[in-house]
Each structure stands twice: as structure tokens, then as C-alpha cells.
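Lab notes, practical 5.
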Amino acid sequence: MQRREFIKLATAVGVASALPLWSRGVLAADRPALPVPNLLTADSRSRIALTVQSGKTQFGPHNAATWGYNGNLLGPALQLQQGKAVTVDIHNQLSEETTVHWHGLDIPGEVDGGPQGVIKPGATRTVTFTPTQQAATCWFHPHQHGKTGHQVAMGLAGLVLIEDPQIHKLLLPKQWGIDDVPVIIQDKRFSADGEIDYQLDVMSAAVGWFGDTLLTNGAIYPQHAVPKGWLRLRLLNGCNARSLNLAASDNRPLYVIASDGGLLAEPVKVTELPMLMGERFEVLVDTSDGKAFDLVMLPVNQMGMAVAPFDKAHPVMRIQPLAIPGSAELPDSLASLPVLPSLDGLTQRKFQLSMDPMLDMMGMQALMKKYGKQAMGGMDHGSMGHGDMKMGNMDHGSMGHMNHGGKGFDFHNANMINGQAFDMNQPMFAASRGQFERWTISGEGDMMLHPFHIHGTQFRILSENGKPPAAHRAGWKDTVRVEGAVSEVLVKFDHEAAKEHMYMAHCHLLEHEDTGMMLGFTV
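Output from the prediction step:
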């Protein structure tokens, strides 16, 4: 590290560590400080130890049982180096099976951690892989078949930071937890006894599990003091089912510098940043005016997600600049993205996402009954075709006489791709290693939001929901938006995935994934 940078870092760290002594003058006494995950690097033997464990966490008035990696909730941020092998020892101390999926990492199927990479209670799974992709903010989370939504809701999620020589050449903010800040956004719901209130039922299988409490790195509306200058936020939408739309409370611009798979060609200036479940974006924000502001979540037009308190702008975190000047810059150019190859003659695959009409009908009925019309997210469900069933002539309010109540109707396999629910033992196709393919993912006939995620690759979006991708979505991605229309992506798989450890492609609305909207494939 350069001496000048070291002195600035030491000063900033000194100020940060002294904050509790004089925080009344800088930070509001009633706001929690933003929790910052530990930055964990491999030891001298290139090993990292992860323990999946249970604990207790305080959320406002609730003291809830939670799960975490190496702690009570969430997990550390693992810092990996491009081209350097790492071995991760994952010890499962939970009383149930889990897996650890490396979301966004371009690694072989046998170490990807999909639903077949099961770690039994008390057991340890060891995986070794070498990240070859460019610098990126990725993450890790469970992928236990049928239980992913529950295990993430309980608190299992952590970041993976891949570094490469290119990222070090740029004068981006890089002081972890000071001007380079992780922001993991999730929502939760609590029961009367203060525990996390998770159910996989007809309603959540249809629209997803969502809560009424917003958390940032596990805290409710925390605050963070930063040096004056450029602030880097590594944003993760870690929600089960809620899409986000982020902005600064004073409308100052956000400069997007990276998407799921790493740096964009150049910064993209936005005032609002929509984020699908599982997506990551890195943004730079100018705090040199010294004025405090909030990162806020604007209301979204998604079924179930416009219910109070999220029917209006809601604070994510408070940012308070200090008198110390920062030293980072916003570069004019960031990375070179390869030109898209010719699409002629490529293998084409089509995926139709759909929901069983019975689940659709029962799920909407349950949603309306619990939350009223506001929960429909501004959609006139009465005139929509869902799946193969036209809803136009149905009276949702009087469907009680059908009263399947979950009996006689298996909602656990009611979300489908190409008419089939996920089969753990049957790959849907085999892709050829190193060959580009053109994938078309259609949500036509189904107006639900589907963030479609593909394992084992970072792809480029050709069209998103029938339109060209926005500038900040035209770089490397592992998740694409599908909502009532068609999206196309250009994919290539550089590693093998055998039947025993297939890659997955699925909706990252976790309750859709858990109830069948997933397929396995080999490479």
C-alpha cells in the first residue's frame, strides 16, 4: 500500500474506532451503527473455515432465533484472488441439512453448491476452486431443495469479493467498512412471540415470502459515518421475494460501476436503481458536500410488495460524511467488455415459466384476503391471463367454496419451467463447454416477476422483458428480469457439470424456486 494511502487509511480507521466516544455530535444516538461483516481471507494454507450455526439476534423489540456463518446472523465477506486456488471447509452445526451455493462464481458444478451438494447435520464439506473471472461482488447462500427460502430467511447469506489486478489499478474507494461499504438489504416478518415468521404456504408459493421490517446488514435503519468524497456501496438484494428500487433521499446521483459479474465499461449515472432478488450492483456516491442523507427504498409495482410500510419511500440506511477528506476517484472508464459475438448458428433454448392455475387462483385469494386490493401492486388481476387460465371471469372473492386448503393440491410442484416442476435426478439438457448459446426465457401468460438466475456462468443480456438492456445492465450478469414478456441472454459455460452435480437455472424468487421453478442441466 502506498504510504499516503496508508496514512489516510490509518486516520480514517482511528476516527472510525473513536466514533462511539463522540457519536452524539455526528451520529444520531437512537440509530444503530451499520454492522460491517468481517473481511475473511484465506490462511497460509489457502484455506477458509465456514461454520453454519444457530444463534440469537435482536431486531428492534424482537430477540429471535437466527442462523449465520461464523456467527449468529449473515456471514463474513470472503475475499478471493483471481487465479488463486482456495479451499473452503464448511461445517454444518445446524440440526438440518444445508448446502452452500457460490452465487455468481464461475466454477465447476461439483463445487457450485447446488441442491445436490448436501451437508448433513454435524458433517463437513470441503470444496476447492480457483476463481478465474474478473473482480466482482458475489455472494453465498443455501440451496437446499425445498428449503432455500426458509434457510435464507433465518439469516444465511454472505458476500464473496473477487479481486484482480485491474481493480487495483483504479483509484476506487477500497477501505473496507469505511468508504467501501457492503449493503445487504433484506426484509423479515416476526411472529407475536418475536421469532422469524416463515411459512411456505399457498400464498408465499404464489407471490413469495415478504416482511414488514427492513434490515440492512441485519440492522433496522442503521447509520454509517464516511470520509467526505467518493463512497462505494456494494449493494445486494438479499430478499427472498422483494424487488427493490434504491435512491438517495436528496436525489443525488448514484454512479453504477459494476453489476453481478464485475465492472462495467464506464460508470452509469442513475437517480433510481431497481434491483432484483439476488442481484448485486456497486455504486459510487459523492459525499463531498458533507451533507447527511439516506439511502432509501422507493415503492415497487410488484404483487404483495406495496403493502405498508413499503407503500411509500422507506429508509435503508443513514450516511453521515465526516470532516476527513477521502482519496478515491470516479474513473471515466473502468474495464473493457468484449464485443458480443455473432448470434448466427448458435444453439438456442427456450424456457417457458409458468404457475399452476390453481396455485395462482388460491394464492391471489389468500393475498387479497390478508392484505386487500393494495397488495395487488397496481395490477388488475381480473383481466390477466396467468398460466393457461384466463382470470377475467373469475370472482376471486367467492372462491372459498373451492377450499382446497392445501389438501388434494400439491403447491410444492406448482411452479414450472416448460411445463415441468424441478426434478433433482433428471437434467433437462446438456450444454457444450465453451460454446455460446442463446437462451430465451419467457414469462408470457404469467404476470409474476421472475428474476431468472443461471449457475456456472456470467452472461450478457441481449434483451430484457422485450427491450434492450439498460446501460448499467449491459455488462456481466447472472440474473435477468422476466415479467410477462420475453428476455434473451447469451450464455457460455467454461466448466463441467456432471449429472451428480448439475448446474441450476431458476427463478430467484426463492419460494418459486422451492416449489418447482427450477431446472438442472449438465455441461
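Observations recorded by the TA: The CA atoms of residues 101 and 112 lie 6 Å apart. Confidence is low (pLDDT under 50) at residues 5-24, 381-406.
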